[in-house]
Here is the input.
Amino acid sequence: MLNILENVGLKPYTTFGIEATARQFVEIKNQEEAVQLVESGVLRDKLHLVIGGGSNILFTGDFDGLVIHVANRGIRMVESAPDSALVEAAAGEVWHDLVSWAIKQGLGGLENLSLVPGNVGAGPVQNIGAYGVELKDYFHSLRAIDLETGSEKVFTKDECRFGYRDSIFKRALKGKMLILAVTFCLSKTPVLRLDYGAIRQELEAMNIKEPAVADVSEAICRIRRNKLPDPAVTGNAGSFFKNPVVSSGKAETLIAGYPGIPVYHQPDGSMKLAAGWLIETCGWKGYREGDAGVHPKQALVLVNYGNATGIDIITLAGKIQDSVLDKFGVKLEMEVNIV
Ligand code: EPU
Here is the structure.
């Protein structure tokens, strides 16, 4: 039974912990409710927004429309082969719970994505990534409800058009689909991905010589807990900006001026820069203005120390963008959805 509520505070539904009110709010607990919502006609001509764990969203004011909170549950193995398994998870499941479930079943693939905040349904929207792995690497398909027609649609990996923190759900299909469930193809003979950052170092510190997927997950959790703010304590939405991609010519100019600058070669010849490094080099790391700030351990993460407003955060973000553009001639694009 659909229960559309009026004037609902959104603070508990986003990891930034910022006050904002939705004029209307509805929780979707299963496919029938999603279809019912479309068929009821309430979405026609009405501003609406689908949210999951609220870990990649910043409200800069009240939302004068309907917020649709996807809260369905369930994780199940849908197919099992000698080397792999297809696992379907409901969009409303907490992402890290899926990672833990997979590890308990002895299935590998998602361990490097341990502790990424948010729910399963948001994962494909921005193709979440961390420590050398992106969701698309283990993605099989997803099921969604078309918010105009109420019909179910299955998207294959190609149809999702995944890119770096990008997919069709941020572009042509933005706001048009409600993702219900995501299916992953996980491995029964996992190949561990240990080359990124400090994973090997952390495993050594844990005194682990022959790591299993659970050990890699634990190492990643330790690295993240040490470097990234816990949204339950300090409001944040993970990386606020994307790492910018520049031409190789631009990168060479920057390397000549700043020999220590981290650059990552891309398959198409372009270069990815570390936004955290650019921001830190402009002097912003640990900066605080009222309750809006730049995390002292990772300059890519903007934080709410308590009572910052969405406008406070976005104003700070704008100043950071201006100073990075001034100093390096590089435009930082926001990763977080601004509403
Ligand atoms: N760096 C600095 N100063 C900083 C932060 C980073 O100099 O304040 C340097 C680091 O020393 C390193 C480089 O920048 O040389 C890259 O840093 P790091 O490995 O911490 O990763 P990142 O590029 O800053 C990306 C993702 C994170 C993900 C990490 C680890 C994006 C936008 N962010 O950050 O994802 O956890 O890699 O894989 O791609 C997220 O999307 O919310 C997120 C946290």
Q: What stands out?
A: The helical segments are 31-39, 95-104, 157-160, 199-205, 213-227, 248-257, 275-281, 310-328.
